[in-house]
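Supplementary Methods, section 5.1.

A reviewer requested that the exact input to the structure prediction be made available. We therefore reproduce it here, unchanged from the version used in the analyses.
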Amino acid sequence: MRPTGSGGPPGEVRHDGPPRPTGQGILSGATGRDGPPPPTGHGGLLGRVFLTRVIEPGDETGGRWVREFGVDRVVRRLRQRGEPLPGVSRKRWAGLLARAERADPRRDLAVAQDTGVRFVCPGDAEWPGQLDDLGDTRPLGLWVRGTADLRLWALRSVALVGARACTEYGAFMAATLAAGLAEKGWIVVSGGAYGIDGAAHRGALGAGGATVAVLACGVDRPYPRGHAGLIGRIAEQGIVVGELPPGEHPTPSRFILRNRVIAALTWGTVVVEAAHRSGSLATARAARRLGRHTMGVPGPATSGLSAGVHELLRQDAVLVTDADEIVELVGDMGELAPERRGPVLPRDLLDPAVRQVLAALPARKAAHPDAIARTAQTTPDDAIAKLYELRALGYVERHGDGWKLTRQAVISVRGGADVR
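The structure derived from this sequence is encoded token-by-token as follows.
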């Protein structure tokens, strides 16, 4: 069953003010609608675009300003170089003012339109309501590249994350899990990075499925550059998302803060391979705080690249090995993984009473029916009847007054779970 957080049930759209034109309707990009941005006030689109240039992603203080004072007042204070808002030093406020001087939201929207990108705000029809679970660290808005509806896709999505310097085993598992999820109609969300992220995206795309890349930079400048082709393909077949305006570059802190969006956007996070200090563990921790499912794929006990995953599994993460087990956790009630069983052996088809007599025979020597009956907890006559049945099936043979397992039966017993 899907977890529920403060953001409400799947599909709920929250509004933090009066209805405003959506980013999807303002820019042509993927929607095919043309025209310059309308004269939206600071409390709407332009104000939020302006703030994405000034306030860093995940800035809790900035998020609190927006919640307590509203976008319009925060923008006005920055534009007019007013007194610092609560919670910041004058030194930091000076840095924000310097950023505000260079911010040009109309230019950013024009650049986005030229590259097929739209800006989606909280309260827009396309805004994923589960992002509201982030509270004051909720994104000011998201730059979105791709034709699909982000909110609808997020309603059935799973995050697959892990180490950049992954092993062949990790890459194989990530691609296999992603392909399996895609075949079941689930959206695979990851960070577009080398290693596990890239393998997960490719696995979903290769299965003809959908995937979302959440970047720590402007969505118009793919990073890493070696993944420019992959991210371009994701934009065509899926969605590329980011909090930062066009042209912005990634930094180490932006990568970590980006992970909270991956965790909040999805119903569960699977860590495929991660060392103790891997940044992907931050995604799992964020998922745990948000009440989402956290899952881990086990690796060799001797592998340092699986040590972080194993630590998660020792806590409250759930071990998963295939797409069925993931869907059992994040999917609807009744979407259960198939029961796991070993191979069915010929003796498994025997009547339980007959199997009991077969198990009572010693492995290497003949036994008298009375001794077999005592071990099998039955009568000598019943034991003899079962022994003749077993002889007809090739399991036992007579040796004078005793009975002995055939070579075929010895091999069968040794190869099963009840090896003596």
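The two ends are 43 Å apart (CA to CA). These observations are discussed further in the main text.
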